[in-house]
Amino acid sequence: MPLLPLIMPCVDELLRMSRRAVLAALASVHPARGAAPVLVDCTAGNGHDTLFLAEAGGASCRVWAFDIQKEALIKARERVAAAGVAERVAFLLAGHEAIAEMLPAAVQGEITAAVFNLGFLPGSDKRQITRAASTLKALETLQTWLAPEGLISVHSYAGHPGGAEERAAVRRWFEGLAWSSWRVASYGFINKPNNPEELFLARKRA
Ligand SMILES: C[S@@+](CC[C@H](N)C(=O)[O-])C[C@H]1O[C@@H](n2cnc3c(N)ncnc32)[C@H](O)[C@@H]1O
Asked: Does 196 fall in a domain?
């Protein structure tokens, strides 16, 4: 294995770990299947992850970006349009729990990567948080809609009301995935003073 691509901070930020995992999923799913990448931003917010997905997925990709806040989607759309990749993204004013209703049936089993950034959108209404019940419903759908070798990435925060409970529910759900079909890892910092964060990365085995 060449050494250079392995060079990175020896303990990295969780956002960067998530993004590297998306790149790895893109690299392993598509050459094998020959289909265009299908990517889902389950919590679009201000669109940082949406833009990353649209750029990483390349010209042929389709990104589905969910958020329940209209203002968030407006900002996300502006960010993606400013980068010139808006035609790759469908913005959906809907909860991610509606993935099965909002995405075409043709992408069942074809999703390359789905990312969640849980919690609330900094600088906006802190009551508009993600919640365990809807997050788990989306995960249930993704369990079957993901392509072989596809990725689910869930970045969770426990510092806001309800955050610790949601994170625990997500952890229990991932713990229940069969070892024969899934590899799930979690990462977190044990010395972060505030707002503990944890990243769950799940790969569906081919
Ligand atoms: C931490 S923010 C996401 C930040 C975003 N990734 C970015 O790049 O700016 C969480 C977002 O999840 C949204 N949200 C809450 N419940 C949701 C649901 N059921 N489905 C989709 N989005 C939801 C919130 O409106 C908020 O914008």
From this structure: no
Residue 177 included in any domain: yes
Mean pLDDT for the chain overall: 95
Whether 65 is in a domain gets the answer yes
Residue ID of nearest Cα to ligand 1 atom 19: 95
Q: For residue 55, give every residue at least 6 positions away whose Cβ sits within 8 Å of its Cβ, in sequence order, or none.
A: 83, 85
37 CA from centroid of ligand 1 (Å): 22
Q: State how far the Cα of 115 lies from the Cα of 95, in Å rounded to an integer.
A: 14
Q: Which domain holds residue 92?
A: 36-189
Determine the pLDDT at residue 76. 98
Q: Of 10-14, 33-37, 70-74, where does mean pLDDT reach its minimum?
A: 33-37
Q: Packing angle between helix 48-57 and helix 70-82, nearest 10 degrees? A: 40
Q: Looking at ligand 1, which residue's alpha carbon is closest to its atom 9?
A: 46
Number of domains in the chain: 1
- What CATH number should be reported for the domain holding residue 160? 3.40.50.150
Domain assignment present for residue 130? The answer is yes
d(CA 1, ligand 1 centre) in Å: 37
CB within 8 Å of 60: residues ≥ 6 apart: 36, 37
Ligand 1 geometric centre to CA of 43 (Å)? 4
- The ligand 1 site (C-beta within 6 Å) comprises 42-43, 45-49, 66-69, 72, 95-97, 117, 119, 121, 128, 130, 134
- CA of 176 from ligand 1 middle (Å) equals 25
